[in-house]
Design brief:
The protein is of the alpha+beta class. The chain is built from 19 helices and seven strands. Among the domains are: 197 residues, Orthogonal Bundle (Helicase, Ruva Protein, domain 3); 59 residues, Muramoyl-pentapeptide Carboxypeptidase, domain 1, CATH 1.10.101. 55% of the residues lie in helices and 6% in strands. The protein binds calcium ion.
Length: 433
């Protein structure tokens, strides 16, 4: 496979191209919320929906069974043994919720400052520092073997699964079989399904614990099965590559992934810069030029110091020329390849800087209404519930459908623009009343 196709395949690890991955988790919760809404609040709609689902399920049961037969044949042809096939696919039924999740489209585009406010908050910085202290030995080993520094590995872990707190709960084999037999990317998920069976056959992952996101990403660092087969390592030396139960294996596998994606040992991801006034020159992550060329255009470090001498970088302007600006290197591209979204890579880069003890972003995002940290989101949800909004009793910091609906309603009643954003003005209004 040509390198660019390979990068795309890897970059689209979660089955959705160019979407920051936490939004997929949000979709996940959103569809659950929709289904729950239908069940709880609109019994007649639920009945119609369930009858439709039943009819569709019956009609597709035969075709799923045919499809699964084809998948078994393909798996066998690529070396999966009969015992593994029997163990992993007997009685397998499709999961309609997984197909529904694959079809969900975002209602609103999340501004990058909201996205980053939830991913790079004080809580994750503090958790990350504690994890660096706790897993220092494994991080040092991963760094010595693959050249990727400890702060970057910890930041990936924190953004991918909140340091192991959110793995996803759907059986990976079932999700992948469902997506391989329905939906828009069947060829891709067919290969992932076969890869998942190979992982089981090899004994790296216990089939009863093989759960993950709706798209089949699993473990501390949310690898797709084919990525696991390609790069996972046994860092703790117990003979198994286990990114579900072994933090060292997950961190080592992440380091191996970044190394294969072009990470330069000892290099930086880049840094925040200051542009000359009215800058109208070139920009773009992939438009790399020598540091000297940027210096000649008047670009400096954010504190006004001159740029370092060597290497090349692209000028990243995530919110246009009036927002924060960054010069990003090939190491930023390696992080980008993990999930094919610049906002995602920036979250990891900025979190890694905080974990190194450096300051966060200096320039302000072009908004007078900043996004909220997870602690602020939980407080906002608590205050909304106190006003009688039904959020299932959960102040979990996840902005799902019910929270958005509550925000829209609260904004409308308070004379604010009803955009459904979890933002500073909403929290301030809730606190003040
Ligand atoms: Ca191991």
């Amino acid at each position: 496979m040509p390198p660019d196709r390979e990068a795309m395949r890897v970059g689209c690890q979660r089955g959705l191209a160019a979407l920051p991955h936490d939004r997929n988790l949000v979709f996940d919760r959103k569809v659950n919320a929709l289904l729950n809404d239908a069940r709880a609040r609109r019994p007649s709609a639920c009945l119609a929906f369930c009858l439709f689902l039943l009819a569709a399920t019956q009609a597709s049961a035969a075709s799923f069974s045919d499809c699964l037969g084809g998948l078994r044949g393909a798996a066998q042809a690529s070396g999966v043994d009969a015992a593994t096939l029997h163990r992993a696919t007997s009685g397998l039924a499709p999961n309609p919720e997984v197909l529904a999740l694959a079809e969900v489209q975002p209602e609103f585009k999340t501004p990058i400052w909201d996205y980053l406010a939830g991913l790079v908050d004080e809580e994750r910085v503090s958790d990350g520092r504690a994890m660096m202290a706790r897993w220092g030995q494994a991080l040092a080993l991963a760094q010595s073997r693959f050249g990727v520094d400890e702060a970057t590995l910890t930041a990936v872990w924190g953004v991918e699964s909140d340091f192991g707190r959110s793995f996803g709960t759907r059986p990976v084999v079932q999700s992948l079989a469902t997506l391989a037999c329905g939906g828009r990317r069947q060829a891709y998920f067919r290969q992932e399904f076969i890869a998942a069976l190979k992982i089981i056959q090899h004994g790296d992952v216990d089939p009863t614990q093989f759960n993950g996101s709706w798209a089949g990403a699993f473990g501390h660092t949310q690898f797709m099965p084919s990525t696991f087969l390609r790069v996972a390592v046994d860092l703790d030396g117990d003979g198994r590559k286990d990114i579900i139960n072994s933090v060292p294996d997950a961190l080592g596998s992440t380091a191996a992934y970044l190394r294969k994606s072009g990470w330069a040992a000892g290099g930086v991801w880049g840094f925040e810069v200051r542009l000359p006034e009215h800058y109208a020159g070139p920009s773009g992550r992939t438009r790399k030029e020598p540091m000297g060329a940027w210096a000649a255009r008047g670009v400096t470090r954010i504190d006004g110091q001159p740029l370092p001498g060597g290497g090349s970088a692209g000028l990243l302007l995530p919110a246009g020329p009036n927002g924060p600006a960054f010069l990003v290197t090939r190491n930023f591209d390696a992080i980008y390849s993990y999930n094919a979204a610049e906002s995602y890579a920036l979250a990891i880069a900025l979190l890694s800087d905080r974990l190194r003890g450096r300051h966060g972003l200096v320039a302000a995002w072009p908004t007078n209404d900043p996004g909220l940290s997870r602690a602020d989101r939980r407080e906002m949800q608590t205050l909304l519930m106190r006003r009688g909004y039904d959020l299932d009793g959960k102040a979990d910091g996840v902005i799902g459908t019910k929270t958005k609906q509550a925000i829209v309603d609260f904004q409308s009643r308070s004379g604010m623009s009803p955009n459904g954003r979890a933002c500073a003005s909403v929290l301030a209004a809730l606190r003040g009343k």
